[in-house]
Design goal:
This is Nitric oxide reductase transcriptional regulator NorR. GO terms for molecular function: ATP binding; DNA binding. With 508 residues, the protein is an alpha/beta fold. 42% of the residues lie in helices and 18% in strands. The longest helix has 27 residues. The N and C termini lie far apart (73 Å).
């Protein structure tokens, strides 16, 4: 039975002047003390899925997972119940936390599990889950006592969401739906100090009309930043148009940007709008802006200065209202100094620069991101559970990730497929050998990035050099969407020499 003093302490904890995250963490600590549970989680309900806000007694990767109700029947039961849910110890419903309680050695099959749906005015905003190793662990607590904990937790979570909505909106009035859902595909996962600062900067600049320049290495998630800026802006209801400048052949680049009229050039069989017109009243994301030719930079500058575009082959100009978010993995200041990028365009674009940190500087976020990708893989492969062994998790944390978040995602996807192929169960464990991350890091000399070269003691210098060249070109091709001209510029090679080298290496 819960004592009145325990309930009072819980209420005081939730109303103290703490940050949201501190309040959530203290909530679970108090719940764990009150109910003597072995593991607990506070979950936010968003777009038919539960998003962990805080955990206690669970593996760190749980914070990165996103539990779709369609894939987790136990969580779906909690979401639909509207009241305290006590699962039988022998429930056939798979537990989303199986294998994710570090303090438990061996498989957890029979245990106590309770779900507390958090409701505000009959609207589901989240849930608290509590687990215990003993099947009879929570029998001493009545449903009425658990409802008190539920009501306090719901009030705390709702207050936090209301405050968050106020901060983002920058106004006093709050929407009836403060839990604005985030699309899973453009969610920025990360809790390290650098990512918290980045998210804070994006929240500040999003509601303005300032141009944003996103800086960072290949694979860090610059496109996600652009999506976040657009989603939080006043233009969120209008189109976000994407253009990869590195994949633009010079012959069609102007048409892609500004459009063309029928007959403007060979192959122009009809009128066509450019990206600027398509993004009118919305946002235009110019990825790899540093790859544009100087001629196109001058034309782009004119559009940014005067707000009108002129289709290829047409004299009349069309006025557009477009917000620009640009991104690059190059040091544009050095590009300006070298005469490869216009200084006036650089200053026009970099009104509000933001730097996306590389994954090697986000050590704690590797675990969260791994959990996020594991949950997505599990759903795609139709598995009940997809987990990392302790050795595999250590290897992920020690690796330097030269390809950043994109490399981590590909690594998890590949390892999941390999692990599933070796298992005949729906509960799959990824081991270290599935990751295949035993590598040395070699400076690539391009954009301060590194290439991962597998260790081999059975080849000579010539073979190792060719393998390194092949891998470097393949990475550049992938990065530039197989645009050979852009690859030549990135690798600082003559185009003809690049083609000859590629043929010799068997890449063409």
């Amino acid at each position: 039975m819960l004592a009145i003093s325990d309930i009072t302490n819980l209420a005081l904890d939730l109303t103290s002047g703490l940050s949201n995250q501190d309040r959530f963490d203290r909530l679970l600590t108090t719940v764990r003390t009150l109910l003597k549970c072995d593991a607990s989680a506070l979950l936010l309900y968003q777009d038919q899925r539960f998003v962990p806000l805080a955990i206690n007694g669970l593996a760190g990767e749980v914070l990165g997972r996103r539990f779709a109700l369609a894939d987790h029947p136990r969580l779906e039961a909690i979401a639909r119940a509207g009241d305290v849910v006590r699962f039988p110890a022998d429930s056939s419903l798979p537990d989303p936390y199986d294998g994710l309680i570090p303090s438990l050695h061996g498989e957890l099959k029979v245990h106590a599990c309770i779900g507390l749906p958090l409701l505000v005015e009959q609207r589901l905003i989240g849930a608290v889950t509590i687990d215990g190793f003993d099947a009879l662990q929570f029998n001493q607590f009545s449903d009425d006592e658990l409802r008190i904990v539920t009501a306090l937790a719901a009030a705390s979570l709702n207050n936090a969401l209301q405050l968050q909505a106020l901060e983002r909106a920058g106004r006093i009035a709050v929407s009836n739906s403060p839990t604005k859902s985030a699309n899973e595909s453009n969610e920025m996962i990360g809790r390290c100090e650098a990512m918290v600062a980045l998210k804070r900067d994006l929240t500040v600049v999003a509601t303005s009309e300032l141009s944003v320049l996103v800086l960072g290495e290949t694979g860090v998630g610059k496109e996600l930043v652009a999506q976040q800026v657009h989603q939080l802006s006043n233009r969120a209801g209008q189109p976000l148009v994407y253009l990869n400048c590195a994949a633009l052949p010079d012959s069609v680049a102007e048409s892609e940007l500004f459009g063309h009229v029928k007959g403007a050039f060979t192959g122009a069989i009809s009128h066509r709008q450019g990206k600027f017109e398509l993004a009118d009243e919305g946002t235009l994301f110019l990825d790899e802006i540093g790859e544009l030719s100087l001629e196109l930079q001058a034309k782009l500058l004119r559009v940014l200065q005067y707000g009108d575009v002129q289709r290829v082959g047409e004299d009349k100009a069309v006025n557009v209202d477009v917000r620009i978010v640009a991104a690059t993995n190059r040091d544009l200041k050095q590009e300006v100094a070298a005469g490869r990028f216009r200084a006036d365009l650089y200053h026009r674009l970099s009104v509000f620069p933001v730097l996306v940190p590389p994954l090697r500087e986000r050590h704690d976020d590797v675990v969260l991101l791994a959990g996020y990708f594991l949950e997505r893989c599990s759903a795609k492969l139709g598995l009940e559970q997809l987990r990392l062994s302790a050795g595999a998790l250590t290897q992920l944390q020690q690796y330097q990730w030269p390809g950043n978040v994109r490399e981590l995602e590909h690594c998890i996807n590949r390892a999941a497929v390999l692990a599933r192929a070796e298992s005949n169960k729906l509960d799959v464990l990824i081991e270290s050998h599935h990751l295949a991350l035993t590598v040395h890091e070699v400076d690539s000399g391009v954009d301060n990035r590194v290439i991962a070269v597998p260790v081999s003691t059975n080849e000579g210098l010539k073979d190792a050099t060719e393998r390194y060249q092949r891998q470097l070109i393949e990475q550049a091709l992938q990065h530039n969407n197989h645009n050979w001209a852009a690859v030549a510029r990135q690798l600082q090679l003559d185009s003809g020499n690049l083609h000859r080298l590629a043929k010799r290496l068997g890449l063409k």
